[in-house]
Design a protein that fits this description.
Two copies of one chain form a homodimer. The first copy, chain A, has 311 residues and is of the alpha/beta class. Helices cover 39% and strands 16% of the residues of chain A. Chain A folds into two domains: 11-50 and 131-188 and 207-300, HAD superfamily/HAD-like (Rossmann fold, 3-Layer(aba) Sandwich), CATH 3.40.50.1000; 55-110, no CATH class. The first copy, chain A, contains eleven helices and eight strands. In chain A, the strands form two sheets. The first copy, chain A, has a six-stranded parallel β-sheet with strand order 3-2-1-6-7-8, sandwiched between helices. In chain A, helix 3 crosses helix 4 (88-105) and helix 5 crosses helix 7. The longest helix of chain A has 18 residues, at 88-105. Chain A is globular. The model of chain A has no long low-confidence stretch (mean pLDDT 95). The interface between A and B is large, with 43 and 43 residues.
Chain lengths: 311, 311
């Protein structure tokens, strides 16, 4: 297969292929040793569809609804009721970000990490996108899969650096992207060591481990987890800005990619605002200022989803 | 080369080769899919020599001495003076564990993660062991290198899970063990995101990120970083106990190895006490109770260090 087959010829495609060739070709003035060829990608909206809501939000809402069905008194709290109805703005208005997060974490609190991984994997097998009518896991971006392939063929190591829950993304990262669980960095809750029925278990707590993996925590967690500065970084919201800046300001040449969701016909059209910092500069504005490569879904991608998705 | 060439025939060697064969051979009743073949090893005292002191302690003492040479008033604090003299018990008596850790972190606080990695790598090139007279980095255990090779040949993924500083171990993990930086889990300090002279930098803080990676934090950090439960685990102190229990009590067969330092002629003889919890049960006692495989350095290892080490 031709490299980047679903990418239309244009600036973005040329920027990618040119960069990969320059850093991978021995003797090139911009050659980078294979051990330093680290690539990081945001997940939601960068590798797969994040609209009309985050995939993990649908999972969480389903869990919350099941919990309220068993304990109706929980549904009397306004933040719970709004969240279970999928009305995030109302949940935010009722409980603020803290109340929303507390409610969101509740259904999976107290269960083991193993049980969570199984529940997430099971749910992801079938849970279906409301508009496209196919499982969420089919809604990965075909051009990005081709980009991952191109990078792998050129000895890059690829990591997902997601604002989403690390264990949720891990449940499908191998199947969707060929990326093993240990190469996924994300937000996470605290886990508590316990011996239960003679087995060591790690029990999920109702609080985050550090901050959610958006904004400045992204480079910090890249260093904590990967230990090397990336030379390729891709994202689609203001929450990815610091990660892209980190890649750009290392000692090596870099490629910073911003996916611009400008195609409401084949996917969605929306600005790349930050979830945790709604007032932040849209990422496409930052990209223009700092010289990053903007990928127009409408213009640069001949195809959005893989062939098995009927859209 | 024959597998495990530096291992003498005996129970430990048979336990290892038997286990690896059983879980790797398709059709075996104990077969484990390659994706679940995760192996974790403690570093200090398990993969390389940790006596008479931790390698990182020598690094830190050198840094502290240099700092005191420039700011003599620092040396007037009893905990600092004791630590700079390498007298850990006196430093503990003067400042407690907290004061000791604070003093130990001080010399590398405020520098960037990149600068720390460079300083550690440079120091590790030449810094020499007081008894053996060769660089510390030569004092890896030859039998353990052979074990890592055997596991790799059988499609295991191998991680270092160290109580030591993650960025210190990473500075040599690839060279010493063929283990890339992102496959090292360890203790770490908080890093602060900063833009310095137009570059994103991560600045080391004077406090740990979470707890030091000893005891119950080991399984928690394995889950946070690797996302799969190991089926092989090796350690040498009570601080590794929970990690070995975690491997033992998963859904797959497991191999738990304890390195018993019982050879004061060729290396050192000491009980596997915990650094952070001195009252904990010695790991060899736990091993006997839980049926783990104890590796006697004296009996099971025909050779301790690689051939290029003149001991």
């Amino acid at each position: 297969m031709t490299a980047l087959a679903s990418w239309r010829d244009g600036e973005a495609k040329r920027a990618i292929t040119g960069f990969v060739a320059r850093v991978s070709r021995e003797g090139s003035p911009e050659f980078v040793a294979a051990s330093a060829r680290i690539a990081v990608f945001d997940n939601d909206g960068t590798l797969w569809c994040e609209r009309p809501g985050f995939v993990q939000a649908y999972y969480m809402i389903g869990r919350l609804q099941a919990m309220i069905a068993e304990q109706p008194e929980l549904g009397e709290k306004p933040v719970m009721r709004a969240l279970a109805a999928g009305d995030i703005p109302a949940a935010l208005a009722a409980g603020g970000m803290e109340g929303l997060m507390e409610a969101a974490l509740l259904p999976d609190t107290g269960i083991t990490a193993d049980a969570f991984a199984e529940a997430a994997a099971t749910w992801l097998q079938d849970a279906t996108h409301p508009r496209f009518g196919v499982p969420f896991r089919r809604l990965v971006y075909q051009p990005m899969l081709e980009l991952l392939d191109l990078l792998r063929e050129n000895s890059f190591r690829i990591f997902v650096v997601s604002g989403g829950g690390v264990e949720f993304v891990r449940a499908v990262s191998e199947e969707l992207y060929g990326i093993p669980p240990d190469d996924v960095v994300g937000s996470s809750v605290e886990l508590e060591f316990a011996r239960i029925d003679g087995r060591v278990q790690l029990v999920r707590q109702a609080r985050f481990r550090g901050s959610p993996n958006e904004g400045t925590p992204k480079p910090v967690n890249i260093q904590a987890h990967i230990g090397r500065r990336p030379i390729v970084a891709g994202g689609n919201t203001a929450g990815d800005r610091e990660m892209l800046e980190y890649a750009q300001t290392g000692q090596h040449p870099s490629l910073c990619l911003v996916i611009d969701h400008d195609d409401d016909e084949r996917e969605y059209a929306y600005a790349g605002a930050s979830f945790t910092d709604p007032g932040a500069e849209p990422i496409t504005t930052t990209a223009a200022r700092l010289g990053w490569t903007v990928v127009s879904m409408k213009g640069d991608w001949a195809q959005i989803f893989p062939d098995n998705v009927p859209v």
